[in-house]
Model the fold of this input.
Amino acid sequence: MLVGTDGGTNMIVGGQSLEALTGIPWYVCVSVILIFLVLVNLMGVAVFGKVQSVLAIGMMTLLGVLGLWGLTGIGTMEPLAVQPPFSPLSWQEQAGTLGLAIWLFIGMEFVAPLAEEVKNPGRTIPIAMLFGCFTIWLVDLFFGLGVTKYIALDVLAQSTIPHVAGAEAMLGKPGLVIMSIVSILAAVTTCDTYLVAVPRMLYGLSKEGLLPKVFAWLHPKTRTPWYGIFFVVGLILIVLVYAFVNNANIDFVTMMIAVACGTWLMSYMITQIDVIVLRIKYPDAVRPFKTPLYPIPQIVGIIACMYMIYTQYQDPRVLTISLYVIAAIILFGIIYLKATGQKLFEPVPLEKVYDGIRKRSELDTAIGGHESDAKLSS
Done:
């Protein structure tokens, strides 16, 4: 659900930013970007890592510099005669927007499926996630404070690319160019992340017998899950085609973001419940990373997710779309498990999960079983 709505929405925003810069229709721009990203991911994770690092660092640097530039007022356009308040909303109203604001941070955990391809994942992945969240918060804070000195908030609210409009109001044509580049990079990095992470999730589910075996096929040379990559592209195309037919305005973009956030927050709740269950059921299991102050973060997180989901579903359209998709997923799960002779509610022992990881690990083809076990434990 997230891949289709969030991935598609980011591509639309990036495409419209490129259209504002070049005049080329957004759907043409999106098609070219999507083809490029598919080729990058079909070639392997090493190519993805190089491309993603350059794009993400470049995007965040430009965004941060632009925000700080706006705050200084050096060489900028004339600021508004009446400066907007730090926030036009009360604290209660701000709390009601958390479910939409979480969109900035959703996907921070997508580095986790790359655990087998990251050095010291027990330490590196949590640090990367925390650093990523802090960086996004800080950079977007600077940018928001910078651009709102130069453009009215109601004008921003009506634009599908408000960040581009704000940068243009702040710096003129150079601002339009810089922020269009940032938007394109954001679209590329987001879609690229989905194309590398989600197919590997599908691969793992397929290996566990929870999805058709086709998702477990790896290309013999690049060792990438091609069918999973094409499946993710299909999900993104559903939203892109729908947007093309129905005119991708700000109302459509906001609704898709709300659907993405609401459904993905459900997965965050499930994950936090899983942590509590596994800590109780397997208190002595080896854990390279353990949540500090357990179970307080989990309890707070579950309550926060429930509240944010509630704020999203005040819009009946968001609730309707989410319920249809959730019903389709549940129906598929029931039919597939029944067809493959699996029980619907049968806990899988942790030892069996470890055994499945060992069996599908490509380490076993190169090193002995004992060394493979040691590698898995570490």
Q: What stands out?
A: Residues 363-378 have pLDDT under 50 and may be disordered. Residues 282 and 350 are 8 Å apart (CA to CA). The two ends are 33 Å apart (CA to CA). Residues 173-207 form the longest helix (35 residues).
